[in-house]
Amino acid sequence: MTRKRRSFSAAEKAAAVRKHLVDKVPVSQIADQMQVQPTLIHNWVNAVMSQAERAFETPRSTKAGKVKTDRTVIELREKLIAKNEVISELMEENIRSKKDNGEL
């Protein structure tokens, strides 16, 4: 007899974390109500705490980060194109030298 794995929605997880952080309900009591291990509730709390700085980001700072990321992507693409051109030239030179030496 196997037990089917349950999944919880983001709203359910958030409600459990709020109960613990705001209402000061012990994790063990929340875990008993939800019929899960207390470590699962602790994992959800840790996930919320690790991303707390995202709550204070403004759209302006997010947009600036996106522009910086876009600029980085463009620069990396340009580097890749230049690298591919150099590799292509080296391969052509290598093939020419092999033909001259009679290796091909």
From TrEMBL:
It comes from the Bacteria. InterPro entries: Transposase_8, Trp_repressor/repl_initiator. One of its GO terms (molecular function) is sequence-specific DNA binding. One of its GO terms (biological process) is DNA transposition. Pfam families: HTH_Tnp_1. This is Transposase.
